[in-house]
Protein 1
Amino acid sequence: MSIALTNAQTVRIREVNIYYELYNFHEQRPVIVLLHGFLSSAFSYRRLIPLLMNDFSIIAIDLPPFGKSEKSTRFRYTYKNLAQLVIDLLHHLQIRKCTLAGHSMGGQICLYIARMQPQIVKQIILLCSSGYMKRVGKSLLFSTYIPYFHLYVKRRLYEQGVEKNLLQVVYNHSLIDDEMKKGYEQPFYDERIFKALIRFIRHREGDLLSTDLQKIDIPTLLLWGENDRVVPIKIGKILHQDLRNSQFISFPNTGHLLPEEKPDDVYRQMIQFMGEFHGS
């Protein structure tokens, strides 16, 4: 099967609907799986996908409750459960081995997958990955049980606004245009996301510990923006120390939204890194 353009699919796995997109998907091509960050979607890879699709079968996933995936109020949004959804989707698509690429929160889920089923992961690429975050504090955790707390979260997100968030995550503000703003605000038109976010806050466990990370021996590339204000570069350097089989590269004048800000540079580093292990 060969699909030159996007083929959007929705599949039900573990009682939740998962939306994903396939690009140039062919069984003879190496597979790369793209996982996005918190409050984002596969849209964040829109500038990188056209470059990668020349060389790879691409699976870009909207992790629930984000993007076009279901905003379930029954699913437990732990990193472990989200990682298992990705694993089950790969099994559904009969993918035996793949490269995982994750931005921000998506990077942490890549690491969870690598701990849970390392045999399906060929390489890992972390783009400004989250790391060493603890579970939310007890006061916020208890707040998620307050009736209508989702309305408070909705108001806070609306007050902050998509444009203000983008100003925090993008170093070069001239990149922020109407297309970008519309793409990142689109998922929040669905009112169901706010109740799902409450469950996400409630159930999300902490990031993997150093002792867990040190057990991952899969070749890993860490790419970072030197001006990242969301996940500072020092986090990337600590991850590099804990991930023993890793390489670390940073980009000056670059913020957190690396796939949007430096797609050509990211693509070149990814191709070089994956080429080192081609066929292994």
Protein 2
Amino acid sequence: MTGRFGQVLALAALVVFSLFPLYSTLVVASHDNADLAAAIPPLLPGGRLLDHVGEVIERVDLGQAMVNSAVISCTVAVVNALACTVAGFAFARLRFRGREALFAVVIASAMVPTQLGIVPLFLVVDAMGWYDTLAAVIVPGLVSAFGVFWMRQACLEAVSTELVDASRVDGCSLARVYWHVALPALRGPAAVLGMLSFATSWNDFSWPLVALDPNDTPTTQVVLSGLAGGYYTDYPLVLTGVLVSIVPVLLLFVLFARKVVAVLAGGAAQTGR
């Protein structure tokens, strides 16, 4: 009982530590600057949150920005999950010349800093006439090196070589083996990858700032950066925008929380064995 109580206490402390930034954001967003400048700052949420939400909507085009971010993030999440599942299955269970070398190239590409590729990527996007279009942000994120590595490892654990060989002997084409054998076994890891891709794309700031015109095709993070501009920063207003912007990511995590825990626990169990 003492050991179990210690575990529960440690988990409770971790939960409090993890939720504190979100709670402090809510407290600041629901008060005025005068309340925050008091000798004893407020510790409980106030009643100005809805007023600040309305002010944020009036100052910036948050609605259109969230629609653009939703289109970008949903497209990237779905296509990235499917494309990386195909690539992971190929690297894990198909035999072809140069497989290991090609996989090494994929892993090496993940080590290149994102900032290093902004200039050449912008030149390509501009040459294709995609500047200030959602395609400029969507297409570069459709496949990720991390996603390929993630799905390859998942395929190595979930799809056996014997099952693939037996399906081919029974007359299944390669496409049917992927669709009927590999994909059902990889739905959990693919869902987790889609959720991570959605959150990454939703929170991306640097590339949308370069590839899109903030006044014409804004995204959520770019629009929110405008709230902190100027000589004076209204912190309750800025954190109100932050609070509104993270709602879709929180809802997505709530929907997929059980799937995430199951996939990570399964991976930990495989590692333990």
Protein 3
Amino acid sequence: MFEARSIPQFPAVGALALRFAPLWPLSLAGQRLTDRLGKRHPALFSRLGDQADKVFLIDPTDLPCVFVMRPRPERPQFSAHRRDEEVGWDARIAGPLAALIGLVHGAYDGDALFFSRDLAIEGDTAAVVALRNAIDNEELDLVREATALLGPLAALATPPAQKLASLIGAVSGAPLTRVATGRFE
């Protein structure tokens, strides 16, 4: 596991570019990935039970946008929004993008991030705990899940995508792939 203080920030130039870029490509890509996660890992959303109807605000504090997720098993939804846009939510999870990705990949301990104040939780904490447990149970790798969107080409695309993510992760310090034996691959 990585120490909470070693969490890298998203590059400022990238955040500046996102400030002026349209968000519909992020919404579209996020929705496709969310749909795919629901198909490949049905327990991910069904395990949430009553919490699946909650609206989660995923707030990468080093980006000029936020993400809204409604993890309903029958039709999960994902969308990107400008930070200043009014968005209703039941639970908010905020922290640097690398920390949020690292939580999904098992590289960071959520409790340690919370107590070090690198991660903020607001609203329905029971919903956040249910989501965290569901994600931990599925042992997701977002690179593998994203390349699965390529269908039959996924088998060819996954190894180079994993290597590229590992290289970028090694340079940036961000855990961009699933951890193995306490280190990200």
Protein 4
Amino acid sequence: MLDIFKNDAFSVVALTLAINKLKHKPGQVGSLGIFKPSSTHLTAISVEEKSGVLTLVAPTPRGGPGVTVGKTDRNLRSIAVPHFEINDAIMAESVQGVRAFGSETELETVMGKVAERLDIHASSHNVTTEYSRIGALKGVVKYAGGSELNLFNLFEVTAPTEVDFDLDNANPAPGALRKKCAAVVRQITEALDGVVISGVHAYCSKEFFDDLVAHPEVRDTYLGWVQAEELRHGYAYGAFPFGGIMWEEYRGSVGGTSFVDADKAHIFPIADIYHTVYAPADYLETVNTLGKAMYAKQYEMPNGKGVHFDTQTNQVNFCSRPNALIPARRT
């Protein structure tokens, strides 16, 4: 039965293509489409700052010449690409029921078993990517196990002060909320210093979002609109524009870890400043090749009772202008 796994359908190339063809379930940040994907054949990337503007530096061959960097207004920063791997196994016993000598459908059935495992692995990798991207929108990318990539420290910029939107105020001053929004939009625009933006977005906790929807200014704004019906009957997991910002309730947590903390919101520009860089897997077959979103590989157990099965992703998600990321709190 295990001879099946020596078929070309179970090669690194075929399995990697299979896992990358699975339906992507990235969550809200992934669906927003603001992270620009790219690949490198190295295990770390360099980000260049020139006159306060950060750009990616193209990788160069090991042992060859590198890029030339001026000594006055340029600075290079290196970011190691994290490695995320899941180890699994498919036992001979699990495919015993599909053994049929000479059957033309045997391979297809066993591949169905593999596809089930690929789908489970892909979901875990996708959630990990989403969590990293949320971190990039906060300015601190956190990883399971406690390690983190602090973008403020990396790029030597001061983290913006958290903005209090005072949403629990029973008698807010007229126009106060809109002024607060305008101040945040101006702060973001000034921080970007000429970078073109197509909008400003915010991911909110449920507490922040509910109080924002209930705020008198918001309700008065939508009173004559079709959306007013939604505001009267609840607007869970929705999104709406107000004060030059698209406010969206973020829904996401894994193992009790909420991606957006209670009472908080994270406001960020829609601009070409978010990056996802893929590095190659640590297999002999993938050395010095351009990285892909995910990889998969299987290899037979020494005792012949099954095959080991690995999937991995090697990627780093970051924002190159973290000083434009504004944290906010409900009160």
